[in-house]
Amino acid sequence: MVSRRRIRSQAKFFYTSRWTKAHDMAFINSLAWVAENGCKQLDPGRPDAAGIRFAMDIVNSFSLVQYGMEFYSARLDFLRQRYNAFSRILSDQGFHWNPNTNRVIGCKESWDRLFVVK
């Protein structure tokens, strides 16, 4: 019998007592505002340092803890990796998003194919 590890709650994985969902929303919305309002970027897929600094200033303005550029760059990379992984799962024919439960739904065969147990 194969033992299955329990997957940690995403809320515990994504957020600590200092960084919350509100921080992420403000950060993402600030980056979106920068992109929509014509901030020149070196690479359209990756906000440049000025865009990240703008978002950092917005979030730090209401945060009790002041984070620096290194943290925000790492957070953006983390969010991008999670988004890409989530998108890859949903692009597979065996999975779909259930908006009523906010969960990814897939048959056992699809999950087994995704998480190959060795």
TrEMBL record:
Residues 18-113 form the Myb/SANT-like domain. It comes from the Eukaryota. This is Myb/SANT-like domain-containing protein. It comes from Sesamum alatum.
